[in-house]
# Entry
Amino acid sequence: MATAQTRTLARTMMAPAVIVLLLWMAVPLAMTIWFSFQNYSLINPLMTGFAGWANYEYVIGDPSFTQSLINTLILVGGVLLITVIGGIFLALLLDQPLWGQGLLRIVVISPFFVMPPVAALIWKNGFMHPGYGMLGHLWKFFGLQPVDWFNQYPLFSVVVIVAWQWLPFATLIFLTALQSLSEEQREAAEMDGANAINRFWYIIMPHMARSVTIVILIQTIFLLGIFAEIRVTTGGGPGYASTNIAFLVFRTGILSNDIGAGSAGGVVAVIIANIVAIFLMRAVGKNLDA
Amino acid sequence: MARNVSTPTKVGFTIAAWAVALLLFAPILWTLLTAFKTESEAIASSPTFLPQNFTLENFAAVQERSDYFKHAFNSIVVSVGSTLLGLIIGVPAAWAMAFAPTKRTKDILMWMLSTKMMPAVGVLIPIYLIFRDLRLLDTVHGLTIIMTLINLPIIIWMLYTYFKEIPVDILEAARMDGAELWNEIVHVLVPMAVPGIASTLLLNVILAWNEAFWTITLTSGRAGTLTAFISSFSSPQGLFLAKLSAASLLAIAPILLLGWFSQKQLVRGLTFGAVK
# Structure
């Protein structure tokens, strides 16, 4: 049905989307790369000219970079671990015959709709505050000294908040996948005498493999860029204890006005994200025809 | 699920599931309750569950301090505006790719998705400088443009997966019946496309409403959305837990309601149609 006329029409219809996305992708990225090789500070206008690799040496050589990179990995890895394992258990539980399933889904998914700064602030003040937070009361109830979470375990606290936001998303996707598993398959396995553990490993897990991959990859995109949760709770501190790469670029480029070094950090962030993206494209691309 | 189980088993599962669900919901519930307490009750050393002196003054105080309505208005303009703009650009593109696919359609789709993977910090600095030079910093229309661009790939993907499911045969059948092009569009295509477009709209309003990188970095006072509004509460001042809870509740309530309606579409939209 693709005549020359419809092809021209189709191209015209796609043109605006392709053009704006091309501009959005190419122009700022080219500028970031350009700035990363320049001496450019908003505070010191005398600092100009070609910088070579100096900005990269400055950013990557600084101990804060290594720490931010490790923090980024802990943040992404920790949240993935909690949400994938927790999500599978929760989805299996919600898939059981029980009363109020529709309402349960709504209650469980709720944290996902809470905007990141709100999630961070209600955890910080309502739950993790050593004086009047819920956890503080709980610790006191058991005769323990309340924990000052954001000073003692800053990165762990951020992991908890972010995991709380993403656990519902993982659960909902796993649940959707579980419910598409055919009843006959399960019953057949049951009749063949497969016990619960065998059914889980040999019937349920292979069926879930695709959704697990998708959850890991999609969450990774978002988790690499965690920003607001850090900004409103710890501000990246104490020191650099809870600074990830995204927050480091913000600190260097916007807060310290060092455009050159900030841009170099941005380029590094793009490279890291691209490595992840290649895997994601493969996984999603494979599922595109299905 | 039509599995036959005994009633005690079902009771057990129900209790377990509700226990976990309420644990997850606890921070939201606690915020809801605290919002109606007085400040001294909110931070009392022996906490109360239900508000003892039910009060609405926290909401008044929040409006007074940070002008909730102005920020909420900005949030609505940016999220709805960017979604509509995204649909205007996205619907024709998705339509063309779904109904007149070429060999390159799949590559174009993947490329569009890849723009979503570019980390925001990678382009923050140039966007910040461009916005500064064009006087777009802290403006609602500047923010709307950015939000359109970051959500456009998701809009196109979602629409594409919905349009793909409209059977082409129906169009041909309508043509055989001698329907004119205009009739074909109004009576056959639009009714089939509307549900997909509506889900896309809903999910994207939610995503734009909760976006908290560009809204915080590109605005300060005038164009601040609710994410910026709530971030201004990050440094505690005096007695403030109840007010913070009231502000939080105001910021999330509208989208929580929308989200409950669209949770089914969420799976499909955010997984780019790979899980249905």
About this structure: Chain B has two domains: 7-57, 67-232. The CA atoms of residues 199 and 248 of chain B lie 26 Å apart.
